[in-house]
Amino acid sequence: EAAELRARLRAVRHTVLVLSGKGGVGKSTFSALLAHGLAADETKQVALLDIDICGPSIPKMMGLEGEQVHQSGSGWSPVYVEENLGVMSVGFLLSSPDDAVIWRGPKKNGLIKQFLRDVDWGEVDYLIVDTPPGTSDEHLSIVQYLSATHIDGAVIVTTPQEVSLQDVRKEINFCRKVKLPIIGVVENMSGFVCPKCKNESQIFPPTTGGAEKMCQNFGVSLLGKVPLDPQIGKSCDRGQSFLAEAPESPATLSYRKIIQRIQEYCEQHHLQEEKIM
Amino acid sequence: AERANLAGVRHILLVLSGKGGVGKSTLCTELALALQHAGKKVGILDVDLCGPSIPGMLRAQDSAVHQCASGWVPVLAGRDKAIALMSIGFLLERPDDAVVWRGPKKNALIKQFVSDVAWGELDFLIVDTPPGTSDEHISTVEALRPCQLLGALLVTTPQ
Fold first, then answer.
1. In-domain check, residue B129
2. B61: domain range?
3. Does some domain include residue B3?
4. Measured between alpha carbons, how far is A77 from A248 in angstroms, rounded to an integer?
5. In chain B, which residues have their Cβ closer than 8 Å to the Cβ of A136?
């Protein structure tokens, strides 16, 4: 079984997990934009795997609601947004978007394994995995199954307030426990600039120092802070890339810088590995 | 034993959402405080095992759980120490410890939370849940089946 997974994932160059202890901080939004950002380079093949089985947001965010998964001789075919950007999610397997997937852990693990074993991703430069909040079955399983290939690292998403950081610290410890390298932390919803009066407000005040202080305390990298922009939510609801729809937004500039840092991390990693080999 | 510890609880309310980060725990806390202010006896059962927010919201994160003859004693929190709480948050050695459990272990603890906590006489027991529709939700509803649930409050945000 491990051999099967290894064979299937052999052609994947870089794998990035997007995690958070906390729900609703923007993991799926970030995963979708990371995928779009990386796929802007047409020479790169990008794969986006959504393992949030109960609340799969990726199909909607990528404008792929209603799409179905097709089977071929070589396995399940991902749903393509662009020629170089393929997506897989339980959302594509539901007969209706409102169907609840009420599964216990073992059944969820089974589907995640299938996603890795049966999907014909082909040659992939970047595999991005969007996860549900928490530190449970899905997270343990994906780390376990992906040990067949290698994971470059995890990007951990948070928002500035202590209630989020509380859960995110646990996620950092989870990564350490399972020896998953942490590429860095992204602080979403970090301030809001009013489009009318241009004043900046802290909608989620960083009462305990925000992600910056947490990263200092834990010795992890702060990849960047992304401000709140109501356009982000709208683009997600409409299945469009926010980066393409609002290229001048301060949020877009932040996202692009973060994406670049992730790319640099992955490339550096690769060079180091090649040196070792 | 299953009914005994909940026998004195008049109404059990579940607070749910498919989505994370919409304000379930915040609502549970505010609802409990409002009901207590209105003279009701209130408890909160926090079944979010991976991300327990309730202790922190009521400034009880440093409290410990004690045992009594009929089981676990809920932590009393709030300004008047009158809101009864149970959460995995009180059982962790360190607040940043990740609870990295698969379903079966989560289910076992939730069953204990439902049957082994000595809630005493409560007007309302509010159950805070994690996002999703999985182990925690199935186990909580199953464990509470012998009791009569008042119902579920669903929380969302506009998008």
1. yes
2. 9-155
3. no
4. 35
5. 50, 100-103, 106, 135
Which pair of structure tokens corresponds to residue A145? Answer: 């199954």
Q: Which backbone phi and psi does A126 adopt, to 5 degrees?
A: -130, 120
Q: How far apart are CA B61 and CA B48, in angstroms?
A: 15
* CA distances, A38 to each of A41, A134, A244, A271, B88 (Å): 6, 26, 13, 19, 40
pTM above 0.90, yes or no: yes
Dig out the tokens for A143 from the structure. 């780390």
For chain B, what is the domain count?
Answer: 1
Q: What would be the CATH architecture of the domain defined by A2-276? A: 3-Layer(aba) Sandwich (3.40)
Q: For B66-118, how does the pLDDT look when each residue is reduced to its tens digit (9 = 90+)? A: 999 999 999 999 989 999 999 999 999 898 999 999 999 999 999 999 999 99
CATH value at residue B124 = 3.40.50.300
Coil vs helix vs strand at B17:
coil
Name the pLDDT band for B1 (thresholds 50, 70, 90). Answer: very low
Q: Which has more confidence, B124 or A273?
A: B124
Question: CB-based contacts of B107: which residues, under 8 Å, 6+ apart?
Answer: A104, B135, B139
- The tens digit of pLDDT for each residue in A10-46 reads 899 999 999 999 999 999 999 999 999 999 999 999 9
Q: Which of B87, B134, B135 to mutate to test the interface with A (most CBs of A within 10 A)?
A: B134
Mean pLDDT along residues A187-216: 93
Sheet holding B149-154, edge to edge: B75-77, B83-87, B42-46, B122-128, B9-16, B149-154
CB nearest to A23's CB, from B19, B102, B104: B19
Q: What pLDDT is recorded for position A274?
A: 66
Tokens of B138: 């199935």
Strands A200-201 and A46-50: unpaired
